[in-house]
Amino acid sequence: MNRRGFLKGLGLAAASSTLGHANDVERKPAGPIRAFTFAFFTDVHVHQGLGAPEGTALAMELMNGSHADFAICGGDHIFEGLASGREGILEQYALYTQLEKRLKLPVWHVLGNHDVAGLVNTTIEEKDPIYGKALFRKTFNTPTKYTFQHKGVRFVVLDSIQIVGRAWIPRIDDAQLEWLQDTLDAQPELPTIIVSHVPLATSIANYYPGSEDPAFRGVANSREIIPLIERYNVIAVLQGHTHIVEDVKRHGIHYITGGAVSGNWWHGTHFGDREGVMFVTVEGGTVTTSYAPTGFASVDPQNS
User: Fold this and answer.
1) Residue 27 falls inside a structural domain
2) What HEC string does 249-299 produce?
3) Could you please report the per-residue DSSP string of 105-121?
4) In sequence order, what are the residues at sequence separation of 6 or more whose Cβ sits closer than 8 angstroms to the Cβ of residue 211?
């Protein structure tokens, strides 16, 4: 399918009856499924300083003590891959993977912008085997977009980080949009949860000082994506990046931002939200969430 056909398929014209009745989509199981809970932990930003390893270990222990079937890391596993030197990036990835060994749950991984290696630090050449998304793929043995199923629910993991030159933009590229539509078309009735590091929908810019900063912007082409997913049995979108706890509901879909294991980048609370893990329970066609603080106490609190 070409882009013109894709946009036509979205039915962006005002007369489109499909999008005009997005609330009519039945967001319910396609068949009998058992309720389950999983952990969504995001924005770990681990490094050797500020007690970050200890704080990350607390998150792992919290998940191990839960009734979660599995875990999803929503991105930004390491503190800083964009501007760090090669040795520093490798050290951060090694530290994260060592800490994740404490986690007794199966875990899925989502690419975050800080997981990308060497864009800002130009001492790392593009031909370097760790450059860009390569180290993420190798470390976690995963593509940056993929699907999996659990107890009758489909999970679709998106890659919201697009590299342009030596910079990144928050966007779902055209090929991935076509892949997303094809994936949803394959089983349109299947209850689906989408996961994206950068939010598709967030209201943070409306209620926090300084949140008009570009760092808080969502996926650039979310206005194309949201009308698409409203046509299917998508029950939730899990998001990270902004380090806040938020649930924006639109046409029956929950856009859930999962806080941050690192809180305010290991400096305490971020806009009042503690370091923590989001637990998501799926029952029938609905999701409910509970955000659990890890109990981490910053050694250098700069609460925002």
Assistant:
1) no
2) EECCEEEEEECECCCCCCCCCECCECEEEEEEEEECCEEEEEEEECCCCCC
3) S-EEE---GGGSBSSS-
4) 204, 205
In the sheet with 234-239, reading across from the earlier edge strand, the strands are: 146-150, 153-157, 192-196, 234-239, 253-258, 245-250
Q: How many CA atoms lie within 13 A of 227 on its CB side?
A: 17
What is the span of the domain harbouring residue 125?
Answer: 33-293
**Residue 201: DSSP 8-state:** S
- For the chain, the domain total comes to 1
- In the chain, the percentage of residues whose pLDDT exceeds 70 is 90
Report if residue 304 sits inside a domain.
no
* Residue 236 located in a structural domain: yes
Q: CA 232, 237, 238 angle in degrees (round to 5)? A: 155
**Number of residues in the chain:** 304
Backbone torsions φ then ψ of 184, nearest 5 degrees: -70, -35
Write the CB contacts of 87 (distance below 8 Å, at least 6 apart in sequence).
none
pTM here? 0.92
Say which CATH number the domain at 156 has: 3.60.21.10
In this structure, are residues 117 and 89 in contact, taking their beta carbons and an 8 Å threshold?
Answer: yes
Average pLDDT, stretch 87-91?
A: 98
Q: Are 109 and 78 in contact (CB under 8 A)?
A: no
Tokens (6 digits) for 90: 């490798």
Q: Is residue 17 part of a domain?
A: no
Report the mean per-residue pLDDT for the chain.
91
